[in-house]
Amino acid sequence: MFLTVCRKSDSFEGRAALGSWIYRVTANAALNKRRGKRQELETSLEEQLPRFKEDGHREGDRAWVLADWSQNPERALLSGETRAVLGRALDALPEHYRAVLTLRDVDELSNEETAEILGESVASVKSRLHRARMALREQLTRHLGPRT
Amino acid sequence: MTCREAIELMLDYLDAALSPPSVEELERHFAACAPCRAYLATYKKTKALAAEANRVEMPDEMKRRLRRFLLEQLRNTT
Ligand SMILES: [Zn+2]
What we know:
Helices cover 68% and strands 0% of the residues of chain A. By secondary structure, chain A is mostly helical.
């Protein structure tokens, strides 16, 4: 993967994004490989995606499908136990999902730029990004629960 | 439009990558569907929180050294 990045780096020279991205993605890749966890992570990600009934409505209690914690102050969401939940959810993402999330949402590259760096199709970048966000959202919602 | 379809379109919706008719149809669904409004609000917030939590800035000097290193690697491999 390192070489793939190097070959592509000329087209991204000057981008501040590359430095922070390569640092995090290679560190994460090494970590996942050491843990031998990739398959396991993929499976657990599936379990965090929304489930739907046959009529296309989301499964789950009314209170849970209506749970909206987005109005909580951001400093509260980014501290304490919620921050820890988010950190664990990010760590639990398979590395190639985290790479997409980092490039798109942290470094704010486009789908096309992300696809080029990773050597993937735009469709696969979008699908991974969407699934990664949904998995994180699910963990945060399980932690924060329905508004009382 | 079902909730399943609405959630599937959220990524493109937030990227402003949907056609005007699709936006209109999706927003009609949101107007009528509280669970999807909740999903959209928490999905958007999740995107913002993940970005914030991940935003660890590398010092400029380290970026420069890394970029130089990458370019050297590139020269060596081609
Ligand atoms: Zn809906």
